């Protein structure tokens, strides 16, 4: 069964766009023979991550002194910034699983800057590498070591929101990831700037780790009801942490499905958000895999386990 015959949009129409070309695993890729070069530790990144996590741990000690409004604000920033990755960089720009209007693309671009996980262009490019060369030396979201330069990226280059954010990414990160989350509680309800700043560090660190869980825990622990030939798995903890991205065996089997699972909104805040945007007229053309195609794949390549969700 081809990707086109599996795929339909909400409303029953098969989209004309060749979305599978973005997602299809490249079976022709060959690992280099001979001994692999030793992995090198990037000590600058190690140091930055240590400093960040120490700051976040200190921020957790300040939680009891934060006001309820500050805690609520942190939760809102967590979901908003996470959506910039899940609904934006991932489902919209990496996989083109739905279409978004200009206002929604701008909103998701702002949210993505708050998440501070590389600009949209780089994130989407490397994620396409991840799908196309999954579990090979070309994979770990690294276009220098991998195959990012060989992918078709004209759709990203043609998106003015993506390229604008890429051009002003550093400035947007300073404003959205650090200044806004810190200044809003300080200015509006008198929170201590010290508490507000370290609360922003906690939020940023949690979103970062939630994303990392998708490509670590969800590749190691869980069942594989759709395809036992790939590493990604269904992991409910990751689904909860990453607001819907833990149905990873399904997603790697059907990467062009906007919901990333067969259960729609269940346990999937990102899918709920996209559905809401469609209801408001800000998004359209959600791509979905037919239930018949899912069932056929389960019987053909699944592990026979009860599917999560």
Automatic annotation (TrEMBL):
Residues 1-20 are annotated as: Disordered. The chain crosses the membrane at residues 46-65, 71-93, 168-188, 194-214. The keyword Lipoprotein does not apply. The keyword Metal-binding applies. GO terms for molecular function: iron ion binding; palmitoyl-CoA 9-desaturase activity; stearoyl-CoA 9-desaturase activity. Its cofactor is Fe(2+). Its EC number is 1.14.19.1. CDD domains: Delta9-FADS-like. Keywords: Endoplasmic reticulum, Fatty acid biosynthesis, Fatty acid metabolism, Iron, Lipid biosynthesis, Lipid metabolism, Membrane, Metal-binding, Oxidoreductase, Transmembrane, Transmembrane helix. The histidine box domains are involved in binding the catalytic metal ions. Belongs to the fatty acid desaturase type 1 family. This is stearoyl-CoA 9-desaturase.
């Amino acid at each position: 069964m081809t990707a086109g015959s599996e795929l339909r949009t909400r409303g029953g129409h098969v989209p004309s766009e060749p979305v599978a070309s973005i997602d299809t695993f490249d079976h022709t890729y060959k690992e280099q023979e001979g001994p692999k070069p030793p992995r090198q530790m990037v000590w600058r990144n190690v140091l930055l991550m240590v400093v960040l996590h120490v700051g976040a741990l200190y921020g957790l000690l300040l939680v009891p002194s934060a006001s309820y409004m500050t805690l609520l604000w942190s939760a809102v920033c967590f979901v908003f910034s996470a959506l910039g990755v899940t609904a934006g960089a991932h489902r919209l720009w990496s996989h083109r699983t739905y279409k978004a209007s200009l206002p929604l693309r701008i909103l998701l671009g702002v949210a993505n800057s708050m998440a501070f996980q590389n600009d949209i262009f780089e994130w989407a490019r490397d994620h396409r590498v991840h799908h196309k060369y999954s579990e090979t030396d070309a994979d770990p979201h690294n276009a220098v070591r991998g195959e990012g330069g060989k992918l078709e990226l004209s759709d990203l280059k043609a998106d003015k929101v993506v390229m604008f954010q890429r051009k002003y990414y550093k400035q947007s990160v300073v404003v959205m990831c650090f200044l806004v989350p810190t200044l809003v509680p300080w200015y509006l309800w008198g929170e201590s700037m010290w508490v507000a700043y370290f609360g922003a560090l906690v939020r940023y660190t949690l979103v970062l780790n939630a994303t990392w869980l998708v490509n670590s825990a969800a590749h190691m622990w869980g069942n594989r009801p759709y395809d036992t030939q790939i590493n990604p798995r269904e992991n409910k903890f990751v689904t909860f942490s990453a607001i819907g991205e833990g149905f990873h065996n399904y997603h790697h089997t059907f990467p062009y499905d906007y919901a990333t699972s067969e259960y729609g909104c269940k346990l999937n805040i990102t899918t709920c958000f996209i559905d809401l945007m469609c209801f408001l007229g800000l998004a359209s053309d959600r791509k979905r895999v037919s239930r018949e195609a899912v069932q056929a794949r389960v019987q053909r390549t699944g592990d026979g386990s009860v599917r999560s969700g």
